Amino acid sequence: MSEKVISVEGLEKSYGVNKAVDRLDFEVNSGEIYGLIGPNGSGKTTTMEILSGVLSDFFGKAFIDNLDVRNEIEKVKEKVGYVPESPNLYESLTPIEYFNMVGSIRNIDSTKLRKRVDYFVDAFDLESYMNQYIGSLSFGTKQKVSLTSSFIHNPKVLILDEAMNGLDPKTAKILRGILFKFKDRGKSVIFSSHVLQLAEIICDRIGIIADGKIIAQGTIDELRERSHEENLEDIFLKLTKGEEEVSTVLRALESGMGDDG
Amino acid sequence: MMVLYKELQYKIIKNNPRITEEDELDEKLKKATTIKRKITIQTLIFSFLGLSLASPIFIGEDELVISSILVTLALVPFIFAIYQTTIQTSYINSLDIFKPLESLPLKIGSFQLSALLSIDFIPMLGIVLPTGLYLLIYYPSVGILAFTWFITGILFGHTVGLLIYSGFGARVESGGKTIRFAKNILKILGFLAFMGMFFMINYLQDYFIAQGDIFMRYSVVYPFSIASVFETLDSVITLSAHLLLLIPLYMYSSRKVWKNIIETESLSTREVETDYAIKTEKQSIALVKKDLKIIFRKSTMIAGLFIPLYVLLPQVLLAIQRGSLPVHQTTLFLFMVGVLTVATSDAILKVEGKAIQSLRNLPLTTEDFIFSKALSMSTVTILASLGFIMLGTYFDLVNLILIPYTFLLPLNASLFSMHYLFRHSGNNIGIPDINFYKLLPLLILTGLVFMIIGIPVLLFEGAVGFIVSYGLASVMLFLFYRKMK
Fold it and tell me: CB neighbours (10 Å) of residue B277?
């Protein structure tokens, strides 16, 4: 039986007068991949940063594996593997030096670290980059380094913010396989993406977020039923009232691109 | 330029662990981007400092006294410009401030860098302001010349900084492990030799004077050349020669720095090494190793880390020249280097750049992060102090008694500095907004801490004084450590 691993109640976070997250509620169970999708600036990244312990200043309640995210921040970080939208890594370290540093901070013993690093290096085809400076790697390879560093402590919860960004189709497919494996082992994943087809394939449940609020959530079938639309893109546009905006902009574009051409 | 400056301040404030509320960020950003206010306050602070440094000028009107004080003063903006250019350029670049400019048709974008840095350079002129104004009143032409020399000194220092940045450490080294290591060592030695060159000028000058060469009455190289201000024509010619050399050199170094900024970091040309060693260690050790690796690979940062060595170098030369190093002198030197551990905090904290964000999702407490920074800060001064004791022991074995100071002083300074710099930080790991100016009060406070440690040596004669002093330093170290943990 699945248990509740992530629980968010009345989560609020403001940046000045802008409310990034506004009384957000949702739960994620063990062995579940939960997709958080929403337009730009809807509060996805802020929510993920709060859950991963990166942002500590917020209102409301958030629990990861029964740990209070606000008060037990270090313990939460031990359970979570967080992949941010863009990899901010030490450019003058090599990937192996970076993994050794992360392993040391996470207190992983060398044998376990070796096993896990070997596994992900092999999966992401990182072997030939291990002794090169991170600064000299492509965005996609940096993303692979960031993914590996977030997986090496065998986290109970994975939080992936646009993690497929910059990955080639082969790596993206491998990552999907890894996520399914995580799920099969009873781990929980929160996943955000702008690629709605991908979210449709891999997520068990989806939460659609707009203006910092969850406006709809459920399995893809439940969302279809509710919106009377077939695919996630149409569901998304309908629920976020994006359809009208898209039509208006397209009509405006037809009358010219704003230049002489 | 204002856009870049605002962006830089925004990123610095964003990395500041003291700022947790967005309202606070807005307010801080507003304050930070008021350039006029910033320049005025900092100039005033340095003017007071300059006033105390130049006091002998106001007492006597001896041209020789004025000239020699001018040389000392001229060294300040020059060294400051080198320091600020090397450290700040690395930091600015690591924060990706120039990224949006890279795709724009800018011929030399690093002019923007010079403009950005000039906001920090201008207040440094405050230190020469009292002397300059005094000269303007009593010797108008000398005053104008002195000011022009000081400004030239800043340009010189800035150009040297740009050359160091482009030559020593804009890129991380490529090549195999051994080659990389050798290149890094060479870069460090090269850098030290480069800095040592300015001390050598002093000796060369004495040598030429001894030779009685009429053209070598005063050195032609800045900062010693400023001593020529009372011989207006000679000074103008020397100044023009400096500018003739400096302007093309500045243009060249600017181009080179910009090229380094817009090009990606070094692309490895060596054969691919697929072997890798896995090794985990204690958190703090792993973080210290990370700091030192980054600093030694991006060796412009070394300028900041090796600041205490600038003090060491003339002392070493002096000791060798004299052939003696008595205990009281070694003690004084150890205290000086110990206090200067504070100055390394700027470079040690700035190695993080935007990568600080990757530490925020790791189970690392702010206390552990700060502690590791304190350890990184004291590495160079501990090693330098040990080296100096070894030299002292060569001349006088009694110097061995001072070994405990080599650890106690730098660690006290670094732990105290971290307490001071992170005194308002919360749970978030970040980098406080520090710069050369903000380090001044910290230097004074650390000096006070060291005064307490040093008092027993003055009160009790012989070994007793040292033993009590070590005890006091150990207790203070323990208290700083306890407070941190």
Answer: 11
All residues of chain B having their beta carbon less than 8 Å from the beta carbon of residue A52 are: 361
Contacts of B364 in chain A (CB under 8 A): 74, 77, 105
- How much is the mean pLDDT over chain B? 80
pLDDT at B406 over 90: yes
How many angstroms separate the first and last alpha carbons of chain B?
42
For the segment B377-402, the average pLDDT, to the nearest whole number, is: 92
CB pairs under 8 A between A and B: 136
Q: What are phi and psi of A87, to 5 degrees?
A: -75, 110
Cβ distance of B279 and A130 shorter than 8 Å: no
Q: Considering only CB atoms, which chain B residues are within 8 Å of A101?
A: 286-287, 289-290
State the DSSP code for A231. Answer: S
Instruction: Inform me whether the pLDDT recorded for A20 exceeds 70.
Output: yes
Closest by Cβ to A56, choosing from B280, B281, B427: B427
ipTM: 0.87
Token code pair at residue B335: 């205290």
Closest residue by Cα to residue B79 from B6, B9, B164, B1: B164
For chain A, what is the radius of gyration of the CA atoms?
19
In DSSP terms, A29 is beta-bridged to A4
Q: Which of A68, A80, A90 is most worth mutating to test chain B (most B CB atoms within 10 A of its CB)?
A: A90
Selection from B7-16, B276-285, B302-311, B346-355 with the highest mean pLDDT = B276-285
For A33-78, how does the pLDDT look when each residue is reduced to its tens digit (9 = 90+)? 999 988 888 899 999 999 998 888 889 999 999 999 988 999 999 9
- Which strands make up the sheet holding A18-29, listed edge to edge? A18-29, A4-15, A59-64, A67-68
- What one-letter code names the amino acid at A200? E
**Best to test chain A binding among B178, B360, B428 (most A CBs inside 10 Å):** B360
Measure A23 CA to nearest chain B CA, in Å.
Answer: 19
Q: Is the omega angle on the peptide bond into residue B223 within 30 degrees of 0, that is, cis?
A: yes
